[in-house]
From TrEMBL:
This is Transcription elongation factor, mitochondrial. InterPro entries: RuvA_2-like, TEFM. One of its GO terms (biological process) is transcription elongation by mitochondrial RNA polymerase. One of its GO terms (cellular component) is mitochondrial nucleoid. GO terms for molecular function: DNA polymerase processivity factor activity.
């Protein structure tokens, strides 16, 4: 028996276009970069990936290596076509929205726009700058490993209105902090 496409549930139907044809080569590369490098926690931050999907993606990637193309993602157990398309659109829509709001970020890598960057050798750090910000103010403190405060400041600072990705906040808060640190 070959069921007609209209009798199949929508998540089981073949797409009208092959999955690779739904996105440009640049978009596919951006999605693959994000999904091949994201941790389980980072994947869980994508609303479309619920339940065990983030763990399943990471486990599959560890067993079989990085994903080479978008259709290879469908080999992950329980990852359905429509979910994958929604994840791709989420990743791409997020990056396009960031580019539209912050033109200077166009050269940044996609994965750093909405995934928390990993810190290598955190034990080797001798000090950090902690930043706290709200809609009208920013405060930061330069603290060493012994929790001695080297400098601290609070400043009135207006951010762009609306919601946008955490990495864009980082780009915005870096400027006043770097201006103060260079003085």
């Amino acid at each position: 028996l070959n069921p007609s496409p209209s009798s199949c549930p929508s998540n089981m139907r073949r797409p009208e276009k092959p999955l690779g044809a739904l996105f440009s080569p640049e978009q596919q590369a951006a999605v693959l970069q994000a999904l091949n490098t994201a941790s389980e926690e980072e994947l869980a931050a994508i609303g479309e990936l619920q339940g065990t999907l983030p763990a399943d993606i990471v486990e599959y990637r560890l067993q079989h290596g990085p994903f080479g193309d978008l259709p290879s993602l469908l080999n992950v157990p329980i990852l359905q076509l429509q979910t994958l398309v929604n994840v791709c659109n989420f990743i791409l829509d997020s990056s396009e929205e960031v580019e539209r709001r912050e033109g200077k970020m166009q050269g940044a890598k996609l994965s750093t726009r909405f995934f928390k960057p990993k810190i290598k050798n955190a034990e080797a750090l001798s000090s950090i700058v902690s930043i706290v910000f709200g809609p009208c103010k920013i405060a930061w403190a330069h603290v060493d490993r012994g929790l001695a405060v080297h400098s601290w400041e609070q400043k009135e600072y207006r951010f762009i209105k609306g919601t946008y990705q955490p990495a864009v906040y980082l780009e915005n808060v870096k400027n006043p902090v770097l201006q103060k640190e260079s003085v």
